[in-house]
Amino acid sequence: MFRTHPRRSILIAGASTTAVAAAATVALIVPQLGPDSVATAEVSASTAPVAELGSAGAPQTADAAASGDSRVAETGKMSSRSETRAQLQPGAATTAPGAAAEEKAAAAAKAAADHRAHLIAQANAKARAEAAAKKAAADHRAHVIAQANAKARAQAAAKKAAAAAKAAADHQAHLIAQANAKARAEAAAKKAAAVKKAAPKTLSGSPQEIARQIVGNSGQYQCFAQIVQHESSWNPTATNPSSGAYGLVQALPGSKMASAGADWRTNPATQIKWGLSYMNERYGSPCGAWSFWQSHHWY
């Protein structure tokens, strides 16, 4: 059955009120739901149940009016829930442009912090590199100085060792020179003594005195003197006319005495040396010769 006209006016007014409430609800929900939710809310608002009117402004059917009542009630419930949510969330009234500005500021702050951290990292890396370079330079300089010091020490040690070796060599050479000089002096002294000893004694005096000096031993001299006395009577130039024997000891021939000296003809000492040598070689001594002479009257 059809509703009366006053009833239709009430339905139309309720639908208008519901549409306004839906729009307000969308405005409150937008900050919480985001852009996609806004689009959904707008669609919901645009599709809110409104009584379809005919060309005369009346509803077409009674079922449509009843459906409108139920939609009005549902829209009221949604409005009530939206208001409750807004009361529970104090920040829900913040506008979308403010949130975007905050996000942009936060992003800028983060970018600035990252850039500052990057600059600090670069500065730290540069400082570490410079410190490493300085340390390497200092280590190299210390190494060079250590090498120079070691070289100087080695050179000083070598010079000291060379000086010590030279001093030792000089000392040894000095000792050797001293020993050589001493040896030469001793050799010269020995040679002088030998020369002095070997030098013929200066003989002087009569033939008898010269014979005493040469023979030395008094007993042997007595035997020697007996032979000379019998042979030449101590005449250095005595000559045997029959045999040609000559001199103190009557050497035959007389030239034999040249082995004792070139002056054998006139020097008694030369004749005595030769006669003593002859007696020692042939008879062992002047006394041996005198013994033979006594038996044979010649020797």
UniProtKB/TrEMBL annotation:
Gene3D superfamilies: 1.10.530.10. InterPro entries: Lysozyme-like_dom_sf (IPR023346), TAT_signal (IPR006311), Transglycosylase_SLT_dom_1 (IPR008258). Pfam families: SLT. Residues 220-288 form the Transglycosylase SLT domain. Residues 54-98 are annotated as: Disordered. SUPFAM superfamilies: Lysozyme-like. It comes from the Bacteria. Residues 1-21 form the signal peptide. This is Lytic transglycosylase domain-containing protein. Residues 77-87 have a biased composition (Polar residues). The lineage of its organism: Bacteria, Bacillati, Actinomycetota, Actinomycetes, Kitasatosporales. Keywords: Signal.
